[in-house]
Amino acid sequence: MADDSVFAAVPSQQSMPFNASSDLHLGDADIAETKINIYRNESMKVYRFEGDWMCKASKFKRLNSSFNKDRERLQFRTLPGKHHSVLTQDFVDEVGHPTYDALLEVIEYFGRSLRTGLETA
Questions:
Q1: DSSP code string of 47-97
Q2: Cβ atoms of residues 57 and 22 within 8 Å
Q3: Residue 73 has pLDDT above 70, yes or no
Q4: Kind plus residue range of the DSSP H or E element containing 1
Q5: Structure confidence at residue 121 (pLDDT)
Q6: Would you say residue 11 has pLDDT above 90?
Q7: In Å, what is the CA distance from 111 to each residue of 13, 63, 84, 120?
């Protein structure tokens, strides 16, 4: 998301680095560039499961403190359950299921963000 050519991104179940659950695996320069790019584009959606043992709530807290101090750049979505892969392995293809709703939200976000990004590029 730090690159100007990226108009939309959806971080999901961020688990890196494994040995430090609240670290971001991003340097200060990457965070600064990402904040600038998100400022030009729509806020990103960020997903995790409530009981995810690899992507803990502390990761969301760190992301929030790093990116949302002065304005909302990341919109956090915590889904119920103890799974890990929101849009892949643990996805449930049933209308009304939280992962299905997350997929619909992501598709709508990409459509809107990519269309807007291409129009302004």
A1: EEETT-SSS-HHHHHHHHHHH-SSS--EEEEEESSS-S-TTTTT---STT-
A2: no
A3: yes
A4: none
A5: 65
A6: no
A7: 22, 24, 25, 14
Sign of the alpha-carbon torsion through 86, 53, 16, 3? positive
- Return the residue matching tokens 């409530």: 50
Taking CA atoms, 112 is separated from 5, 42, 119, 120, in Å, by: 16, 9, 11, 12
- Tens of pLDDT, residue by residue over 15-28, are 665 666 677 778 88
Joined together, the tokens standing for residue 36 give 């600038």
Q: What letter would DSSP give residue 18?
A: T
The torsion of the CA quartet 115, 30, 17, 63, rounded to 10 degrees, works out to -70
Q: CA torsion, points 31, 105, 89, 95, in degrees to nearest 10?
A: 160
Q: Identify the CA nearest to 67 among candidates 101, 35, 107, 113.
A: 35
Instruction: Report yes or no: 35 and 71 within 8 Å, Cβ to Cβ.
Output: no
| Residues 6 or more apart whose Cβ sits within 8 Å of residue 66 | 24, 31
